[in-house]
Specification:
Oligomer: single chain
Strand order of the largest sheet: 4-3-5-6-7
Number of domains: 1
Bound molecules: zinc ion
Strand content: 25-35%
Structural class: alpha/beta
CATH topology: Rossmann fold
Number of strands: 9
Number of helices: 6
Shape: globular
């Protein structure tokens, strides 16, 4: 965990400011993991933190562009099959084999919406989700998500505020939207 913290700090991935999250709440910090994962060497080191959570997975699946890098690296290291949900992926005809055990990989989890999307995606195609491997878990309470094991390399709960309660709003700091890295806006 300390090594990951050092990587995040060195890459400038931990941002402090005044951010509007996709759920409309405000926050004073934000992890932009694209800053960490744009360098293959540091991306590989970050992915290494997630290997212990891979269990007996046969596949990895990622719900965001940045997490795709982690899913690729985990699959490469462990000899797994990474599912690539991107054009020209044939969504209609793809089915997992009955014995497929899928590890869902995500760089940052705030609300869990992206995990819901990914879990639904896998299950609709006959796959079994055996766990979540998350680089940074920002939920108030860590641990399993909807009854499925979740292992995070770093648990750093986020403080969020409604606009009337937000200290940065009161201080008049300019508000920026959290950088989005996925067009479906699932984070
Ligand atoms: Zn605010």
């Amino acid at each position: 965990m300390e090594h990951l913290k050092a990587l995040l700090a060195a890459s400038g991935a931990f941002l402090e400011g005044h951010y509007r999250l996709e759920n409309g709440l405000h926050a004073l910090s934000y992890y932009d993991c694209s800053r960490l994962l744009q360098y293959p060497q540091t991306a590989a080191q970050a992915a290494e933190e997630l290997l212990p959570g891979a269990g007996r997975a046969t596949h990895t699946f990622a719900p965001s562009i940045t997490s795709l890098i982690l899913a690729f690296e985990i699959a490469r290291r462990l000899g797994l099959h990474m599912i690539l949900d991107a054009p020209p992926f044939d969504e209609e005809s793809f089915r997992f084999e009955p014995e497929a055990r899928v590890l869902i990989v995500e760089d940052v989890v705030v609300t869990g919406r992206s995990l819901d999307y990914a879990t639904d995606w896998v299950r609709r195609r006959g796959g079994q989700v055996i766990g979540y491997a998350v680089l940074i878990d920002r939920r108030a309470e860590g641990g399993a998500y909807r009854g499925i094991p979740l292992r995070a390399a770093l648990w750093d709960p986020i403080s969020t505020f409604t606009p009337p309660q937000c200290p940065a709003c009161r201080a008049g700091l300019p508000l920026t939207g959290a950088p989005a890295n996925y067009p479906k806006g699932l984070r």
